[in-house]
Design brief:
Residues 18-231 form the Protein kinase domain. It comes from Claviceps pazoutovae. There is one protein chain. The chain is of the alpha+beta class. It has 2 domains: 36-113, Phosphorylase Kinase, domain 1, CATH 3.30.200; 116-211, Transferase(Phosphotransferase), domain 1 (Orthogonal Bundle), CATH 1.10.510.10. It is built from 7 helices and 6 strands. The protein has helices at 2-15, 36-39, 71-87, 118-121, 130-146, 194-211, 219-229, and strands spanning 58-62, 96-102, 105-112, 116-117, 159-161, 167-169. The strands form 2 sheets. The protein has a 3-stranded antiparallel sheet with strand order 1-3-2, covered by helices on one side. Helix 5 (130-146) runs antiparallel to helix 6 (194-211). The longest helix is centred in the C-terminal third of the chain and has 18 residues, at 194-211. It is globular and about 75 Å long. The protein starts with a helix and ends with a helix.
Length: 231
């Protein structure tokens, strides 16, 4: 899956080098039919159905057509994991809001929308409580493991933060082999193991400790200044 995403991204870079046209002759384009059975799995009533249109503050995760041959089963696997989390929710795992359904098929997964990723947050100069953030991330990972779920792709781009800097982890169980720079030995994982998440969690701790300024409690200092002013 990671290899396909890299190839697709490189293809986009190549395409950007060509001259753009405002008109496309559809009649002269080669058309390749897509088997909808392998792209969009059939909806089952046992899954939560998302409202249509999606509710405010939602994000719809759609199919990656770059790897559609194997996507249907993977989507169902991901939904099963989110359904399990719906029965056993955790504040530090992204909120699942149901399946997006069209013509009886699942075309997307509706999730809560967050303000920014941890990567983006590191670029903001406002104070950031890194210890609290790390604690919440690790609590979320422990919760996943208690349910028999392995994240296997833990990295700053997959840690979402809301307006109060509360983290929520997004994931795709069974679909990722680990980001190379966040994996053991910097190589893809062959298996989804809890130790993969624990290693990535330690890397996140290093990343946040290195990048984020520690939030300082200035109340005692302000209190002392006020006392000096009133003396």
């Amino acid at each position: 899956m990671e290899r396909l995403e890299l190839e697709f991204g490189f293809t986009k870079i190549i395409i950007h080098r060509f001259r753009k046209s405002s008109e496309i002759d559809l009649d002269n384009l080669g058309k390749i039919p897509i088997d909808t059975d392998t792209v969009w799995p059939r909806y089952s009533a046992r899954f939560l159905r998302a409202p249509s249109p999606a509710s405010k503050g939602s994000y719809v995760k759609k199919t990656n057509l770059g790897s559609y041959e194997e996507f249907s089963d993977l989507v169902l696997h991901e939904i099963e994991a989110y359904e399990l989390l719906r029965r056993h929710p955790h504040p530090n795992i992204v909120e699942y809001r149901g399946c997006v359904v069209s013509d009886g098929r699942i075309t997307g997964i509706c999730l809560a929308k967050y303000k920014m990723t941890l990567n983006d947050r590191m670029k903001v100069s406002t104070p950031f409580d890194k210890d609290r953030c790390l604690e919440c991330i690790e609590r979320g990972i422990r919760h996943l493991h208690s349910l028999g779920i392995v994240h296997n792709d833990l990295k700053p781009a997959n840690i979402m933060l809301d307006e109060l800097d509360r983290p929520g982890q997004k994931f795709a169980p069974g679909m990722k082999t680990g980001a190379l720079e966040w994996s053991i030995d910097c190589s893809p994982y062959e298996y989804a193991l809890c130790e993969n998440d624990m290693f990535a969690s330690s890397k996140l701790r290093e990343f946040i400790s290195r990048e984020a300024p520690r939030r300082v409690n200035i109340r005692p200092l302000l209190r002392s200044l006020c006392e000096l002013v009133h003396q």
